[in-house]
Specification:
The complex is a heterodimer of chains A (337) and B (326). Chain A has 337 residues and is an alpha/beta fold. Chain A has one domain: Rossmann fold. Chain A contains 11 helices and 8 strands. The N terminus of chain A is likely disordered. Chain B has 326 residues and is an alpha/beta fold. Chain B folds into 2 domains: 180 residues, Thiamin diphosphate (ThDP)-binding fold, Pyr/PP domains (Rossmann fold); 129 residues, Rossmann fold (3-Layer(aba) Sandwich), CATH 3.40.50. Chain B contains 12 helices and 14 strands. In chain B, helix 1 runs parallel beside helix 7. Classes of the chains: A alpha/beta (337), B alpha/beta (326). Chains A and B meet through helix 5 and helix 6 of A and helix 3, helix 4 and helix 5 of B.
Chain lengths: 337, 326
């Protein structure tokens, strides 16, 4: 009897493990698909004139944000660059308020004062969206200093692109993070291009960046940024290291944006073949294919998520469109506390 | 009343803050083991420990930005720059980040941080170490900017600046670190944005701030000997500017002289005289005089540097020519 009972328990825990895994895998897909659809809707609304200014889409890089952020806790901070929609949505920022911010509406995350490049949600410890290339690095050290000083147990994830590695703040911050043993996970999204400048034209030291972290005594690794599970696994290990040691870790994600730097980019600086080659690794194709082939999800599961996400995105556009403009008097609000 | 030199008054303000608020930290180059380039933080490392007195690498952009990040996560960092000229290396962090982050986030993120920096010419440090960029920073919405001229104001303004929930530029005239003055024993604060009428008078209003107050006081003494009664105003705060106090004085004296010891072109007194011209024109009896340092890079040579710096006797001549002989 005892043996039977044990067998039964084992079975139950195995099946619940599968269902947890399935839910987790479907969530990953849902988050990536949400980012993709959100970005497509942004592009559409940019063309319509509903979104203005600069708009940098995250299309192609979804696996990096989703795979990494899934390992974070509530007390962890995120800072990122101006291509920030993906990180914001992966962190769970309100989709309606994110879209409203892009529309410049009073219901936006920053009441319409920040726009696409400056998404913030202090409650979720999402500390921006920073549009001066490399400007977010020092902010990360400060947030990490606060975590260390207050002993919160939190860490900071600092996203940056390959273009920012030629800024002084990159090198200064890696140095300081190492010297002060600050809990920062540096995540490089190496999409090979800083705007229109490919790394082979602006960088000494070859196409790999993570090897340079050893200059600052920072442990580092590289992962395929198009493979969401690889990113998830690598980040999990990196986050554990940072949390245990207190000090920094450097993770390079090799990724690619399938679209231009911004909506104003004609991509004269690169060949269509290169884009097509990378599109074969599209996480929004490969991951659901794997979910099906591994028997984790059915076509019906995928379709259900697709419908849900499309509705969420449509609602966000409706919300943004129907929201009111900020009042003129608000121009003076929020400068000083 | 006890007397302190400026350096001691600032030190007292920092020490109080460190004692009273565990969230206060000081970050800067050589502020710990070395004791600070101007010895303001001397002894702090032993007293408060390396967790709170943080010697930084020579990376201005990064340690200023570190202050911003720490402040936005609830600490109250005080940044020491060795010279306000070095603020240029971290200008992006001060202007694009510290000043803008609250506005860009729709008021979600506060940056309660003080950036202290020695400022000004007069100690033969030549072009890269003698500038007065508080005048640039005063233009930036999101920052407050103060510059005391005496130990009492330094302590009172520093207390307010550290308690304030916004980034405050605290410019310290390098020429005045050794200047002695009365400092009340009882606790007091001086609000940001309040000018002070240092001396009452009836014939002409003299406005300056920081190291310029020394020049203005000399001008006033010369005018006294000529039986011309001058009212002296210390701006103290460059952002916000206390236009009302200046206006009230001009209503009484009907004459204004405004003096910067920074370069005249683009100095903060351009704002002061423009405001008086716009809002108090009816009370003016004569043209406003605006004095500043010469519009040149600061030279090293003592005579050349003095030549570029505003001179009290020349200023009195100008008052004679442009106002009193009219």
């Amino acid at each position: 009897m005892a043996t039977l009972k044990q067998e039964k328990n084992k079975k139950t825990s195995k099946s619940s493990k599968i269902s947890i895994e399935k839910r987790e895998m479907l969530d990953i897909y849902k988050n990536m698909f949400l980012i993709r659809q959100f970005e497509l809707a942004c592009g559409e609304n940019y063309t319509k004139g509903n979104i203005r200014g600069f708009l940098h889409l995250y299309i192609g890089q979804e696996a990096t944000a989703v795979g990494s952020i899934s390992n974070l806790e509530d007390e962890d901070y995120i800072v990122t660059h101006y291509r920030d929609h993906g990180h914001a949505l992966a962190r769970g920022l309100d989709v309606n308020r994110s879209m409203a911010e892009l529309f410049g509406k009073s219901t936006g995350l920053s009441k319409g004062k920040g726009g696409s490049m400056h998404l913030f949600d202090a409650g979720k410890k999402f500390m921006g969206g920073h549009a001066i290339v490399g400007g977010q690095f020092p902010l990360a050290t400060g947030l990490a200093l606060a975590c260390q000083y207050k002993k919160t147990g939190g860490i900071v994830v600092c996203y940056f692109g390959d273009g920012s590695t030629n800024q002084g703040t990159y090198h200064e911050t890696l140095n300081l993070a190492s010297v002060w043993n600050l809990p920062i996970l540096f995540i490089l999204e190496n999409n090979k291009y800083g705007m229109g400048s490919s790394i082979d034209r602006v960088r000494a030291g070859g196409e790999d960046f993570y090897t340079g972290a050893s200059t600052y005594d920072i442990p580092a690794a590289q992962v395929n940024g198009m493979d969401v599970l690889a990113v998830k696994e690598a980040t999990k290990i990196a986050v554990e290291k940072v949390r245990q040691n207190g000090g920094p870790f450097y993770l390079e994600c090799k990724t690619f944006r399938f679209v231009g730097h911004s909506l104003a980019d004609g991509q004269k600086y690169r060949k269509t073949d290169e884009i097509k080659e990378w599109e074969k690794q599209d996480p929004l194709i490969r991951f659901p294919e794997w979910l099906l082939s591994a028997g984790i999800a059915s076509q019906k599961d995928i379709e259900k998520i697709n419908q849900e996400v499309n509705l969420i995105v449509k609602e966000s556009v409706d919300f943004a469109e129907s929201s009111s403009e900020p009042k003129n008097s608000e121009v003076y609000d929020d400068i000083y506390k | 009343m006890p007397q302190l030199v400026m350096r001691e008054a600032i030190k007292k303000g920092l020490e109080e803050a460190l004692q009273n608020d565990p969230n206060v930290l000081i970050l800067g180059e050589d502020i710990g083991a070395y004791g600070g380039a101007y010895a303001v933080t001397d002894g702090f490392l032993d007293k408060f420990g390396p967790e709170r007195i943080k010697d930084t690498p020579i990376s201005e952009a990064t340690f200023i930005g570190t202050g911003i990040g720490a402040a936005s996560a609830g600490l109250r960092p005080i940044i020491e720059l060795m010279s306000i000229s070095f603020s240029l290396v971290g200008f992006d962090q001060i202007v694009n980040m510290a000043a803008n982050i609250r506005y860009m986030s729709g008021g979600q993120i506060d940056v309660p941080m003080v950036i202290r920096a020695p400022t000004g010419a007069g100690v033969q440090l030549a072009a890269t170490h003698s500038q007065s960029f508080e005048t640039w920073l005063a233009e930036v919405p999101g920052l407050y900017c103060v510059c005391p001229s005496n130990p009492k104001d330094a302590l009172g303004l520093l207390r307010t600046a550290i308690k304030d929930n916004n980034p405050v530029i605290f410019a310290e005239p390098a020429l005045l670190y050794g200047t002695k003055g009365d400092v009340p024993e009882e606790y007091y604060e001086i609000p940001l944005g309040s000018a002070s009428v240092v001396k009452k008078g009836n014939d002409i209003t003299l406005v300056s701030y920081g190291a310029g107050m020394k020049v203005i006081e000399e001008v006033s003494t010369i005018l006294d000997k000529k039986n011309i009664s001058s009212e002296i105003i210390d701006l103290r705060s460059l952002s916000p500017i206390d236009y009302a106090t200046i206006g009230e004085s001009v209503k009484k004296t009907n004459k204004l002289l405004a003096l910067d010891t920074s370069r005249r072109n683009g100095g903060i007194m351009a704002e002061v005289v423009a405001d008086v011209q716009e809002n108090f024109n009816d009370w003016l009896d004569s043209p406003i005089i605006r004095i500043g340092a010469k519009d040149v890079p600061w030279p090293y040579n003592k005579n050349l540097e003095s030549n570029a710096y505003p001179d009290p006797n020349e200023i009195v001549d100008e008052i004679n020519n442009k106002i009193l002989n009219l």
